[in-house]
Automatic annotation (TrEMBL):
Residues 47-124 form the D-glutamate N-acetyltransferase-like N-terminal domain. It comes from the Bacteria. The lineage of its organism: Bacteria, Pseudomonadati, Pseudomonadota, Alphaproteobacteria, Sphingomonadales. This is DUF1611 domain-containing protein. It comes from Sphingopyxis jiangsuensis. Residues 131-327 form the D-glutamate N-acetyltransferase-like C-terminal domain.
Length: 344
């Protein structure tokens, strides 16, 4: 188990998308985040108290979370130096980078000497089966996207919490580093060997008979040349009854690939439905989620209204506007009452 509370590491970051792990924790688990660590050249903040490692430890922090993502998930020299300083100050380290903490000899030596823990979140369990595609009980929703980092995790978490508020059993199933740190469990899907991706999701979302929902966090995009393979295996393993398409309307091109344009929403949605039908022929689209954080409020609401009218699906910004329209469509489409009475 990763000890909480957390100090969130921003380092030298100046890429808003690159600090999505730290931001996701600050938004969805502020109760376990005591502050942020950033260097003077970092132009970003999570509006948490700025602390050095000793201050954070004195304030009760137990673990420094390397809440950043960079190309290739590398542990750079400056990051290693910061991690060593945090260990010396009495903090454990948690990281979701591909370059594992436990593969860095200096960190391993320091942690052993100081009695500290190194947690590599992107380390899949060793007993993942190969997917079999057999039908299994339960209801599942999967978020899919036009690109990477367009709001799939936010949408999934918002839907899970909204279902719970209506008295409907719901579980958020994390498939990425940020979601795993928020939920406390999950599968780091982009670290799973390709042949086992669908099996990892079958394992993550097993049969359920309580009438509740598994809300499965999507990854990548079928239209992103770098990550479409992960997205495909996820669609097959999830056997989703419902899909929600996530999109950032301000994104000029595929993240990291300026030579690739984003797909049209209708093209992307149909492609995801077609792939999902391999393991669930009855899959349905129940909504479109737009990340409008960069748009003025009036423009954001107008864009959602136009998108809803064009595609005949409820459209909202889940974090900014709520998910009720999508939730209503989901429950109506699957024949589940919109609320379930709570026991006296």
């Amino acid at each position: 188990m990763i000890a909480t509370p957390y100090l969130l590491y921003l380092g030298h970051s100046n890429d808003n998308v690159g600090i999505k792990t730290a931001r996701g924790l600050a938004v969805f688990r502020p109760d376990i985040c005591v502050g942020e660590f950033r260097h003077d050249d970092c132009g970003l903040t999570l509006d948490l108290p700025r602390m050095d490692f000793a201050m954070a430890r004195a304030a009760g922090a137990r673990t420094l979370v390397l809440g950043i993502a960079n190309a290739g998930g590398k542990l750079g020299a400056d990051l290693i130096e910061d991690a060593l300083a945090a260990l010396e100050s009495g903090l454990d380290i948690a990281s979701g980078l591909h370059h594992r903490l436990n593969d860095e000899p200096r960190l391993v030596e320091a942690a052993a000497r100081l009695g500290r823990q190194l947690h590599d979140v992107r380390k899949p369990r060793p007993d993942i089966p190969i997917g079999n595609g057999l039908p299994r009980e339960g209801k599942r929703l999967l978020t899919v996207g036009t690109d990477c980092s367009v709001g799939k995790m936010y949408t999934t978490l918002c839907l899970a919490r909204a279902l719970e508020k209506r008295g409907i059993a719901a579980d958020f199933r994390a498939t990425g580093q940020t979601g795993i740190l928020i939920a406390g469990s999950g599968v780091p899907l982009d670290a799973v060997v390709a042949d086992f991706i669908s099996g990892a999701i079958e394992q993550l979302s097993p049969p359920r008979t309580d009438g509740g929902w598994d809300l499965i966090e999507g990854q990548g995009s079928l239209f992103h040349p770098s990550f479409a393979g992960v997205s495909t295996g996820l669609l097959h393993g999830a056997q989703p009854d419902a899909l929600v398409l996530c999109h950032d309307p301000t994104r000029p091109h595929m993240r990291g690939l300026p030579h690739y344009q984003l797909p049209a929403l209708d093209e992307c949605l149909e492609a995801n439905l077609q792939v999902a039908r391999l393991t669930n022929a009855a899959v349905q689209a129940v909504g479109i989620a737009l990340n409008t954080s960069a748009l003025p409020e009036a423009q954001a609401y107008e864009l959602c209204a136009r998108t809803e009218e064009k595609f005949g699906l409820p459209c909202t910004d889940p974090y900014r506007m709520g998910v009720e329209p999508i939730l209503d469509r989901l429950l109506a489409a699957t024949g589940i009452p919109s609320t379930i009475a709570q026991p006296a």
